Amino acid sequence: MYSVEQLQKIIDTEIKFRSVKLKELKPTNLYSPVNYSLEIGGKRLRPVLLLLSYNLFSDDIKAALSPAVAIEVFHNFTLLHDDIMDNADVRRNQPTVHNKFDENSAILSGDAMAFLAYKFLLESKSENLINVIELFSKTAIEVCEGQQFDMDFENRLDVTEIEYLEMIRLKTAVLLACSLKTGALLANADNEIANQLYEFGINLGLAFQLQDDLLDSFGDQKTFGKKIGGDILSNKKTFLLIKALENCTPIEKTELLDWINKKDFVAEKKIEAVLDIYNKLNIKELTQAKIKYYFYKSSSILQNLSVDKSKTEPLAELSNQVLKRNY
Questions:
Q1: Is residue 327 part of a domain?
Q2: What is the CATH number of the domain that holds 32?
Q3: Which of 288, 204, 189, 273 is nearest to 232 (CA)?
Q4: Is position 110 within any domain?
Q5: In terms of Cα–Cα distance, which of 105, 97, 188, 185 is closest to 139?
Q6: How far apart are CA 17 and CA 300, in angstroms?
Q7: Predicted pLDDT at 325
Q8: What does pTM read for this prediction?
Q9: Rounded to 5 degrees, what are φ and ψ at 171?
């Protein structure tokens, strides 16, 4: 069995190799943003999950590298477009692609990355490739559906917890689940186990996104990699804001809505004021409890997986790492 660290090094090496090849392609202005996006790093969570899942059933990791790269390229494509829609300035402590280059370049290079992902996926020689492509295509559409729901929520103040959880399931969790199921399919694993790994990924993904929301308000920028308070400034309908609107007193709701509706404000003051309301309502603790709920669900699925428990230890380790990001 490979360790998480070994697989991270393997996928990083493979992505660097692919980046060198992309640098040789023309037009340069199309591929430079692609290389920049891939080379500024990241957790490589999704490709590592794919490789860990594959490694449960096979030690021939090289056979799964191209699909793992495909998953990472697709993920980065979504980030390019998301950052434009969110008007984000920083990603992984570096300027976002549309700031480093320009918005049109980020859009077009992002489009190219979506198709490059399929190109890399098609390099696989697996007899289950058709099933993998069907899963990948279904997931890609679901991610877009999740993003649209997220955009729809921008103009609503009545978003429910159930609606929000479905949105993040689509926008975030399904790609983690796809990574895990893809690894199992490529290794010709039993369908029941592949589906269990998918559900493990869904619950891990929900916990992961909820923690992302929490870190955006209560995290440390150096470790989080993005500016703190961005969701507050953009009135993003996160779990935190939804629970605050649900639990606040009439006076607190008036204050919160006032900040949401303000067009002119000092960013630091808005963040401070909203965080003060969150603290009064114990929103951090409510969110942490929800994170634990989904994390325990994912852990339970992993423990009940019909695979040698020693083989699932790296997956459990990575799950713990993901949910131990600093505040």
A1: no
A2: 1.10.600.10
A3: 273
A4: yes
A5: 185
A6: 37
A7: 63
A8: 0.93
A9: -75, -35
Question: What contacts 310, CB < 8 A, 6 or more positions away?
Answer: 1
Structural domain count of the chain: 1
Alpha-carbon distance values, 42 to 11, 38, 91, 152, 251 (Å): 11, 8, 9, 28, 41
Query: What's the CA gap between 25 and 20, in Å, rounded?
Result: 9
**Closest to 236 (Cα-Cα) out of 148, 145, 155:** 155
| Whether pLDDT at 326 is above 60 | no
53-65 per-position pLDDT tens digit: 999 999 999 999 9
Within a domain: 102: yes
H helix or E strand, kind and range, residue 130: helix 129-153
Task: Kindly state the tokens that stand for 187.
Answer: 């290794």
Task: Return the top range by mean pLDDT from 88-102, 179-193, 212-226.
Answer: 179-193
Helix (H, G, I), strand (E, B) or coil at 129: helix
DSSP string computed for 274-291: HHHHHHHTTHHHHHHHHH
pLDDT digits (tens, 9 = 90+) for 103-138: 999 999 999 999 999 999 999 999 999 999 999 999
Q: What is the pLDDT of residues 8-63, one digit of tens each?
A: 999 999 999 999 999 999 999 999 999 999 988 788 999 999 999 999 999 999 99
Q: Is residue 9 part of a domain?
A: yes
